[in-house]
Amino acid sequence: MKKLLLVLSVILGGCATQPTNLVLQPIDTSNLQHSQVAPQAIAISSQDLRTETYLARVRKEGEPAQLVTAGNNPRMLMQNAIATGFTQLGYQVSGDATTQLQLQLDKLQVDVAQETLEHKGSSIAAVTVKLIKPKQELTKRFVAKGSFKGVMAADAAQMESELNARVQQLLQAVINDQEIHQFINQGVVQ
User: Fold this and answer.
1) Whether the Cβ atoms of residue 171 and residue 85 lie closer than 8 Å to each other
2) Are 143 and 124 in contact (CB under 8 A)?
3) If we measure between CA atoms, which residue out of 39, 67, 34 comes closest to residue 53?
4) How far apart are CA 181 and CA 95, in angstroms?
5) Which of 24, 105, 150, 189 has the most CB atoms in a 10 Å sphere around its CB?
6) What pLDDT digit, counting tens, does each position of 124-137 carry?
7) Which Pfam families match (predicted)?
8) Whole-angstrom Cα distance, residue 43 to residue 13?
């Protein structure tokens, strides 16, 4: 019986196809903690500085790793979420503001080790936020990590869910960061 289960598991596991791309979902900015009184103008821009541009790497012993790319642009998704979050906090997002927020996407990846009957994975999202005012700068790095495991092969939905959770965690940390808000509002008369 055990041999039959093992053979069926291998056959079913071999039939499972890995996705070719993952789709990140829009970020929920409704859970914001900071309230901002005087509306300040900020300009928001972003860069994708990742050395690995794939979103997922699935490794099976004895086989080359399968790389899964993004179905949408993660940099723009994050930039739009940051802009929406800061707008909801009362900031005015304007391209010609003197205070600039530059978002650098440093890493966004899920790494899966696929074994015969199970998989284990880890995820990481990392950004650097650089705030620039005339004669002042503030740079902060934010990192969100996670891990998961399951039976059989990891599927696209599980990898997407893991990445979306890390991105959400990361962007909430940026949007709610008190030091960022203090820097933006520094020198403002209320």
Assistant:
1) yes
2) yes
3) 67
4) 18
5) 105
6) 999 999 999 999 99
7) Lipoprotein_16
8) 49
Domain residue spans of the chain: 44-185
**pLDDT in the model for residue 25:** 67
Superfamily of domain 44-185 in the CATH hierarchy: ABC-type transport auxiliary lipoprotein component (3.40.50.10610)
C-alpha 90/C-alpha 51 separation (Å) is 35
Q: Which two tokens stand for residue 83?
A: 């802009």
- In SS3 terms, the chain reads as CHHHHHHHHHHHHHHCCCCCEECCCCCCCCCCCCCCCCCCEEEEEEEECCCCCCCEEEEECCCCCEEEEECCCHHHHHHHHHHHHHHHCCCEECCCCCEEEEEEEEEEEEEEEECCCEEEEEEEEEEEEEEEECCEEEEEEEEEEEEEEEECCCCHHHHHHHHHHHHHHHHHHHHCCHHHHHHHHCCCCC
**Neighbouring C-alpha atoms within 13 Å toward the C-beta of 32:** 24
Place of tokens 């979050």: 85
**How many residues are there in the chain?**
190
Answer whether 100's CB lies under 8 Å from 43's CB.
Answer: yes
